[in-house]
Amino acid sequence: MSEELKQLRNQIDTIDEELLLLISKRAGLAQQIGKIKKSGIIYRPEREAQILTRMQEQNPGPISSKHIKQLFIEIMSVCRALERPMSVAYLGPSGTFSEDAALKRFGNAISTLACDSIDEVFRAVESDSANYGVVPVENSTEGAVGRTMDLLLQTSLIICGEIQLAIHQFLMAQQSGLSHIKKIYTHPQSFAQCHQWLKVNLPQISDIAFVTTASNAEAARQAAADAHAAAIASKRAAELFGLSICAENIEDDPKNTTRFLVIGKQLVDASGKDKTSLILSTSNHSGAIYKLLEPLARYGVSMSRLESRPSRAGLWQYVFFVDIEGHQQDQKVAAALVELRDKAAFLKILGSYPVT
Ligand SMILES: O=C(O)C(=O)C[C@]1(C(=O)O)C=C[C@@H](O)C=C1
Fold this sequence. Notes:
Layout: H1 3-36, H2 45-57, H3 65-83, E1 87-91, H4 97-106, E2 111-115, H5 118-126, E3 132-139, E4 143-144, H6 146-154, E5 158-166, E6 170-173, E7 183-186, H7 188-201, E8 209-212, H8 216-223, E9 229-233, H9 235-240, E10 244-247, E11 257-264, E12 274-281, H10 288-298, E13 303-310, E14 318-325, H11 331-343, E15 346-354
Parallel strand pairs: 1-2, 1-3, 7-8, 7-9
Antiparallel strand pairs: 3-4, 3-11, 5-11, 6-9, 6-10, 12-14, 12-15, 13-14
Bound molecules: prephenic acid.
Subcellular location: Cytoplasm
Domain Chorismate mutase: 1-87
Site (Essential for prephenate dehydratase activity): 258
């Protein structure tokens, strides 16, 4: 070993020891905070969002802000776990993008509960089998996830946060290369997202049998048991089922993103950069929705999403899912909400939470 290398490693050893002491000291403080929290609610999304923003703003480099964020998410994850272990339900099985989203938000020091359906995720949180749930709500190419919206309307759960996840698809099989592939297991949505790539890159495509699966992770599981098959799934699924990557990032739209919601029972305090989600309905006369939303414009509250969904209360009757900028405790948002409540036939505040 060269003298220079030895010296650099010695410096790293000293810093690691300092880091270890500092992280342990931080964890001790979190434990003290845990004891003070009489409400028993450990997870504070607004505080975590503030810490992540501050650390990224103060990041001196050379580490990227994205990686600084990841590091601090893991540090907070272990501190949180020391205060009290936390469980998060998600749309399983293990290896799905929903699991990726849950770990992206909460870090790895959580216990996860894989559910068979979106309904089951809601039920797990409602019955306290899990502290929080992570469910998909919209995809940049496929649009809204109707079941999640229906359950937000029907249940008393509220939104505690959102997670944006870039969806990268991988082609995986027992062995690398493309020429041996005779069958591809895939979830229909993933297939739709990679259609063009498959056509261009697999000359044998007309001889390939496509087999539909209920999830990406299930596709990977099936391919792991079939030497001539491949699967379209996430990188995590390849790791989980011991598959080789045949091709990476095969999605046709590189910006393909899914937005997930964190659902729970707790009201979240303001972080300084928040959004509020509402469900509204109005009578069916002309200009009704325009008149209903007018207070938002008057109080200068911007709307970032407006989506309609059948209300199931009557034929051609709709509810509107509206996201607005700001927290329900912000003065102008609170004032606009008072007027909306007056005008709307129905208003449900789904929650205020930090913007990501
Ligand atoms: O500040 C708190 O309330 C804490 O419990 C500490 C801490 C952290 O590690 O910084 C941990 C969990 C919370 O979600 C927020 C922050």
